[in-house]
Specification:
Largest sheet: 6 strands, mixed
Strand content: 15-25%
Shape: globular
Mean pLDDT: 93
Number of domains: 4
Low-confidence stretches: 645-655
CATH class of the largest domain: Alpha Beta
Oligomer: single chain
Number of helices: 31
Helix content: 25-40%
Radius of gyration: 25 Å
Strand order of the largest sheet: 5-4-17-16-15-6
CATH architecture of the largest domain: 3-Layer(aba) Sandwich
Amino acid sequence: MRKIPVYAHPAAGWPALISSTRKLMDYKAFLRGSISVLHSNQPKGGFDCPGCAWPDHKSHKAIDVCENGIKVIASETMSTRADAAFFAKHTVTALQGWSGYELEHSGRLSEPLYYDAAQDRYLAISWEDAYVCIAEQLQQLDSPDEALFYTSGRVTNEPAFMFQLFVRCFGTNNLPDCSNMCHEPTSVMLGKQLGVGKATVVLEDFEQAKLIMLFGQNPATNHPRMLEMLAHAHKQGCRIIAINPMREQGLSKFRNPQKPTHMAAGQSDEMVDEVIQVQIGGDVALLTGLAKWLTKNDRINSDFIENQTSGYDALDTWLRQQSWTDVERGCGISKAEIINLAKLVADSPATICTWGMGITQHVQGEDNVAMITNLLLLMGMIGIDGAGASPVRGHSNVQGDRTMGIHERPKQSLLDSLERVFKHPMPQEHGLDVIAGAKALMQGTIKAFISMGGNYAVAAPDKSAIQNALTDTQLNVFVATKLNETMLYPGKNNLILPCLGRTERLMTVKGEQFATIEDSMCQVVPTQGRLEPISETLKSEAQIVADMATHVLGSESSIPWQAMSTDFDIVRDYIAEAIDGFENFNQRIRAAERGFHLYHPARHRVWNTDSGKAQFEVPQYPITYVAAQMAQTTSTYQHHIKDSKNSNNNQNPEQKVWQLTSVRSHDQFNTMIFGFQDRYRQTDRRDVLFMHPDEMSRLGWQKGDQVLVSRQDSKDQQRTLGPLILTEMDIAANAVATYYPECNDLIDLDSHAPDSRTPAYKSVTVVLERIHQGSIASSA
C-alpha cells in the first residue's frame, strides 16, 4: 500500500488564523471585515454569520466565528466596487471568460444596472426605471406561471416572507430555492417519517450524546464551528464515527483558536474515533447491514417500536431479504466491520446521526435519509436527550426561507393561512422546482427569471444549457451583493439590483431594523449588521421586494408593502398570524438573548404523519444500485472498446469505470470561490481529480497525469470534463472526486432523486481516460 501524503497538523489553529487574515487583506477588507468579525454571531445587536447554519453557542464568547465565516465576511465587506465604472472597462462577453474566482473578487455591486446589448455592457439605471421595466415585463406575460422566482438561502426571514407573498399575489407558486439542490431529501423523508422535515436535536444534545455518527459531511471545511462541539463531546466520553468515502484530515484533531493552551502550548483535541470509508453511494447498504444485524439479534427498542411507530413489519421483511453478500458489495465494508459498528449502536444509550450533502445528493438520496431515520427509530433515539436526527444545512437561512413559505409545493394549510391573513386568493397548483424550472427555461416556456441572491445557473446541473436559455428570456432580474456567472447571460431585459449585505446597517424612516434567521436546529435568532453600507444607493432586500410588489401589483394590492419594508415589526406580526410556531414573534425574539426554539413535535414524540406514528420506510432502490450502475457502464465501455477499430488503449476496461463525487474546497462557499488553497487536501488548484494512490498504481498512472472524465447521461449523450490533473487522496476504492461547481456539466437534469428531485452531484458513474502522462505539480 502506497503511503498517502496527509496534512500533518490539527484542524484550525494558527493556519486558520493566518489564512483568515490573508483573506481579509486579499479582499481589501481588513478594517471593515475585522469589525464585522467581532460582531458575528453575537447576541443583542450582532449579525448571524452567513457562512453556515450551525447554531450559536449559548454561552457568550468574545469571538464566535470560524475561518469559513471570516472568508464569507471578507467577501461581503470588501471595499472594491463592481459599479458602472467597472463595467465600462469590461464587456459582458469578456466577463464570460472570467473564472468564478475573478468574478468573486471584482467587487461589491453598488448601483442598479441594466444590460445594453448595443454596447455589450451593464450601464447604470435609476431604481424607478428598473422597477418600471420589471412591472412592464411581468404584466405582459400570458400567465404568471411564465415567471420563475428563485431564492438563495442567505435571504433572511422577513424579506423571504415578503417575497413569497409577492410571488403568490402575482399568481404563481414557481418558487424554487437552493433547498432543491441540497437537503430536499432530508425535508421530504423526515417529513414523511417524523412529521417535520427538520432536525430533532438541539445543540445541548451533543453534550449528552454517547455516540455520534457523521454521515457524508466534512465539518472542518464546510461548517468548522461544529468542530468545537465534536471535540467537546469526545472529551465528555462520546464515541464519534465518521462514515465517508474520504478520510478528511480536518476531522482527526482540532486546535481551538479560542483556547490559549491550544494556541500557545500546541495542544489539540481529538475528535473522530474511527473513519468507515464506505464506497460512494453505499450508505444504504451499510445502514441495511446495521439494521439487519440489530433486528436479527433483537438489539432494538421493541417498546418504542410497538408504541410509537408504524411500518416495522414491512421493513423487517425487507431486511431479511437482503443478503450479506449484497450488503458488502453495496457498501464496500466487510460484514465483520459492520457488525462491530452495529454493536456500538446497540450499546449506546444516546445516539445522534448527523449528515450533510454527501447523503442527500444522490439518486438514492431519499433512501439514505430514510435508512438513517429507520436506524434511529429502531433504537428509540428520537425524543430523548442526547439523541436524534441532525441534518446540517449550508446556507445560514435556507431552513428559515422554507419555514417562511419559499416552496414550490406549499402545504394547503400555508395557502389557506395566507388567504385568511391577507384576504387575497393564493395560487393552488404546485410550481416549478430548480430542475423543472431549468427545463422550462430551456424549452422557452419561462419568459422571466427573478433571483433573490444565489448563482442559479452555476449551482444547478447543465450549467451551460441554463446560461444559454437565460439569453432567450424577456426579463432577468438579479438581487445580489456580488457579481456571478449567471448574471452574464442576459435576456432581452437584464437588471442587477444591488442589496445590503448581512453585515451592513439597515436604516429606514422607522429607525434601525433587525432581521431574523432560523438555524439548522430550529432556533430563530436576530441578526443586525453594524457597518455603514458600501454605497448609499443600496436597498434592503425587503425594500426591493416591496418596491417590485408596489409597481407590479399596483393599486389592486391592499397589502402594506412599503410599511413592511420600513418596519420589520409589521412583517413579524404578519408572520405570527400566518406561520405556525411564530405566535408573539416580536415579543419572543426580543425576550431571549439567543432567540427562541421552534416547537418540534417529534422531540416530544408527537408524530404529525399520515399514520399518527413515526414511520419506517423501505428503500426504493436496491442496495447494490451503485454497483449495478458501474457494471452497466463497464459493459457499455467494453462494447465500445471492442467495436473501436482505432483504439490503441491496452488498459483493462474494467479498471476504468469509477464512481465520481463532487467536493468543495477549503477556499470556497458553495459557488463562491475565495481562492485556490485546499489546505487539508494539500492542493492549490481546482482542475484536479482525486484518486487513491493504490488505484493509480493499479492502473499504472501517477500523480500529475492528465485525465479526461466522461459519462453517458440519461439521454445517452456523452458529457466530458477535463483534462484534470491527477492527485492523491485517501478515498475509497473505485472512487474519484473533483470540485463542485466545475463538474456540474457532467450531471444532467434527469439524474436526481425521484421525489425530492435533488441532483446527483455526489454520485455519478464515469469513465476515465488518461490523455497525457506527466508530472505537472498539483500540490502546494
